[in-house]
């Protein structure tokens, strides 16, 4: 039976007196890929930040697994972040000056999990970054970092993955790698929300929202 | 494992961690030194000046207008504020068998035995004459040749009484009364009555002296007291104690400021990493806890070492430089102070780290980075 992982009803948000989100009504189906696209400044990152509990909406309701979210319940939010939500952001993916493996070990530690070496090998091969496992993050190119960030998303069992502009600054080769990874991710019981200004990944999405339409 | 979570931060913060370790190490040393010097000063000022029984002693005597020895109203003297005790007597100048001094040169005074510690005698007993050790060594071998009518023991008390009673010998008021009863009246009649007063604190001696002169305004009265001329020193000693406390508090506040500055500088440098940890599911409280545990792990050994070094140095200095054996309560105070310093250090780090981490990983701060 299909059900919604997230549902946002009449979500409004203003930042610095400027109205960013104006009565957003969307649902994010469970174990599907949802793409929210729109041009820069359309409010898609702000919407993702609400889903990631970084913003508290001025009004409206967000439901997670059909349960109304109380943005003041830090314990609940901390648990969701730790156990269920994976976040992808190009700039805030890894700790600099240490290796990819050291980063992955830290994230595993945060989640009280162990890294499955076989799965790690598989992910590295798929994304063609095997030699980078013991490389310092700070020496990686933008594309390599993006691919490395996908290793993290594939390695840990997230129930909800939120991706902010995953194709930003990627060349066609890197976009291809990323699409492969997303295809693999969708085989898991994982709900994926991607916000992007690009329509290149539209074909991988099950549900597509255009910010201009939903944030009229 | 979480305690080592911040191991990654070592590489780019090596100098900062080293600076924190050095600052904490030195600060604990300096705080300890300040406390220990203050303790020594407090003990010295308190025992040797402010609460010195020798400095709290007053010798009072006077003549009336016709130059005859005057007897004052003991009740009026005892009622003066801060007077702990007052003894009246005409000192006895007894002949003793001392081969060097045929007479008890400073005279024998009666004193209330409950307060004999004011002149340096403890457990004063009846039927004894107490001779100062420095002036009359081997007093137990003396015999009194005057017809005092009772059998007395001659004993020494350590050192000498205060200068105003230099060479003075003492006996209890009961013994004095019994001896005087047996001596011919002429033996004591011509001797001027002397009043020995004990005051509760040195700082009150000056007020008591004023009041004593007020008791005998028309008499040729004379008050002698060891604390004479030390008014400014006594007042300054009190001020000095407050200055020491103020210096300690000021240095501690400076230390807290330095901890805040160093923690803030470290966390500013880690700011982006903290956000990444937060976005990857580590709650703010746990980030702060892990960072605190990591810093504690790095600094605790230094804090303990500096505490230990300072305590050993202090105790050695007491023993070898000041030739004092620290009493049991000193150890307790040192342990308590070091426990307090260690606790305050860790507590400050914990509070500062908690506050700054919360600010750095606030939703607003992270959103700002993401939006940019």
| Intertermini distance of chain A | 31 Å
Which ranges of chain A are low-confidence, i.e. pLDDT below 50, for 5 or more consecutive residues? Answer: none
Going by helix content, strand content and strand pairing, the class of chain B is: alpha/beta
Helix content of chain B: 40-55%
Q: Which residues of chain B sit in consecutive blocks of at least 5 with pLDDT less than 50?
A: none
Which sheet architecture does the biggest sheet of chain B show?
Answer: 4 strands, antiparallel
Q: Tally of extended strands of chain A? A: 9
The CA-CA distance between the termini of chain B, in Å, is 34 Å
**Outline of chain A:** globular
From N to C, what is the helix and strand string of chain B?
Answer: HEHEEEEEHHEHEHHHH
The amount of beta strand of chain A, in percent, is 25-35%
Largest sheet of chain A: 5 strands, parallel
How large, in whole angstroms, is the Cα Rg of chain A?
Answer: 17 Å
Number of helices of chain B: 9
Keywords for this structure?
heterodimer; A: 216 residues; alpha/beta; five-stranded parallel beta sheet; four-stranded antiparallel beta sheet; 7 helices; 9 strands; globular; B: 372 residues; 9 helices; 54% helix; elongated
Description:
- The complex is a heterodimer of chains A (216) and B (372).
- Chain A starts with a strand and ends with a helix.
- Chain A contains 7 helices and 9 strands.
- In chain A, 44% of the residues are buried.
- Chain A has a 5-stranded parallel beta sheet with strand order 6-7-8-3-9, sandwiched between helices. Chain A has a 4-stranded antiparallel beta sheet with strand order 2-1-4-5, with helices on one face.
- The model of chain A has no long low-confidence stretch (mean pLDDT 89).
- Chain A is globular, with a radius of gyration of 17 Å.
- Chain A is of the alpha/beta class and 216 residues long.
- With 372 residues, chain B is an alpha/beta fold.
- Chain B contains 9 helices and 8 strands.
- Chain B has helices at 10-50, 74-78, 173-182, 185-189, 205-215, 231-279, 284-321, 328-360, 363-371, and strands at 57-63, 83-89, 108-111, 128-132, 153-157, 169-172, 194-199, 220-225.
- In chain B, the strands form 3 sheets. Chain B has a 4-stranded antiparallel beta sheet with strand order 2-7-1-8.
- In chain B, helix 1 runs antiparallel to helix 8 (328-360).
- The longest helix of chain B is centred in the C-terminal third of the chain and has 49 residues, at 231-279.
- The mean pLDDT of chain B is 86.
- The A-B interface holds A 45-46, 49, 52-56, 74, 78, 81-83, 85, 87, 89, 91-98, 102, 106-107, 109-111, 164 and B 1-2, 5, 8, 11-12, 272-273, 275-283, 363, 366-367, 369-371.
């Amino acid at each position: 039976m299909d059900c919604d992982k997230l549902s946002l009803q009449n979500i409004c948000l203003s930042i610095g007196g400027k109205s960013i989100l104006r009565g957003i009504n969307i649902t994010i189906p469970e174990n599907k890929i949802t793409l929210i696209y729109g041009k820069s400044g359309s409010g898609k990152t702000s919407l993702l930040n609400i889903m990631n509990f970084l913003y508290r909406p001025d009004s409206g309701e967000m439901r997670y697994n059909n349960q109304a979210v109380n943005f003041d319940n830090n314990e609940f939010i901390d648990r969701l972040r730790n156990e269920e939500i994976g976040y992808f952001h190009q700039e805030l993916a890894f700790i600099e000056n240490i290796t990819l493996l050291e980063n992955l070990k830290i994230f595993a530690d945060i989640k009280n999990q162990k890294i499955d070496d076989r799965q790690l090998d598989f992910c590295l091969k798929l994304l063609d970054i095997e030699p980078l496992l013991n490389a310092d993050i700070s020496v990686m190119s933008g594309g390599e970092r993006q691919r490395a960030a996908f290793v993290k998303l594939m390695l840990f069992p997230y129930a909800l993955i939120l991706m902010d502009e995953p194709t930003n600054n990627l060349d066609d080769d890197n976009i291809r790698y990323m699409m492969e990874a997303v295809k693999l991710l969708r085989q898991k019981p994982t709900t994926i929300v991607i916000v992007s200004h690009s329509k290149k990944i539209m074909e991988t999405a099950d549900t597509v929202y255009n910010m201009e339409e939903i944030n009229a | 494992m979480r305690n080592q979570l911040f191991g990654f931060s070592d590489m780019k913060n090596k100098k900062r961690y080293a600076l924190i370790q050095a600052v904490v190490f030195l600060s604990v040393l300096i705080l300890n030194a300040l406390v220990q010097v203050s303790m020594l000063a407090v003990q010295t000022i308190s025992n040797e000046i402010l609460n010195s029984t020798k400095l709290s002693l007053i010798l009072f005597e006077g003549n009336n207008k016709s130059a005859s020895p005057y007897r004052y109203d003991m009740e009026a003297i005892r009622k003066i504020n801060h007077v702990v005790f007052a003894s009246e007597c005409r000192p006895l100048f007894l002949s003793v068998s001392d081969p060097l001094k045929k007479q008890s040169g400073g005279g024998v005074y009666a004193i209330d035995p409950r307060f004999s510690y004011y002149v340096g005698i403890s457990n004063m007993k009846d039927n004894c004459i107490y001779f100062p050790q420095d002036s009359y060594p081997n007093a137990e071998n003396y015999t009194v040749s005057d017809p005092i009518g009772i059998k007395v023991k001659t004993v020494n008390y350590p050192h000498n009484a205060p200068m105003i009673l230099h060479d003075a010998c003492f006996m209890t008021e009961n013994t004095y009364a019994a001896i005087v009863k047996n001596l011919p009246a002429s033996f004591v009649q011509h001797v001027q009555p002397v009043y020995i007063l004990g005051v509760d604190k040195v700082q009150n001696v000056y007020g008591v002296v004023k009041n004593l002169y007020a008791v005998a305004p028309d008499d040729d009265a004379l008050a002698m007291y060891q604390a004479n001329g030390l008014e400014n020193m006594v007042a300054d000693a009190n001020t000095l104690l407050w200055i020491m406390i103020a210096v300690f508090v000021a240095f501690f506040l400076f230390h807290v400021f330095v901890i805040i500055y160093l923690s803030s500088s470290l966390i500013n440098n880690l700011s982006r990493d903290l956000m990444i940890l937060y976005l990857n599911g580590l709650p703010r409280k746990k980030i702060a806890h892990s960072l605190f545990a990591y810093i504690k792990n790095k600094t605790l050994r230094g804090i303990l070492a500096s505490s230990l070094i300072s305590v050993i140095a202090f105790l050695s200095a007491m023993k070898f430089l000041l030739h004092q054996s620290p009493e049991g309560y000193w150890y307790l105070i040192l342990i308590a102070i070091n426990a307090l310093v260690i606790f305050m250090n860790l507590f400050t780090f914990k509070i500062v780290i908690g506050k700054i981490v919360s600010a750095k990983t606030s939703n607003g701060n992270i959103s700002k980075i993401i939006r940019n």
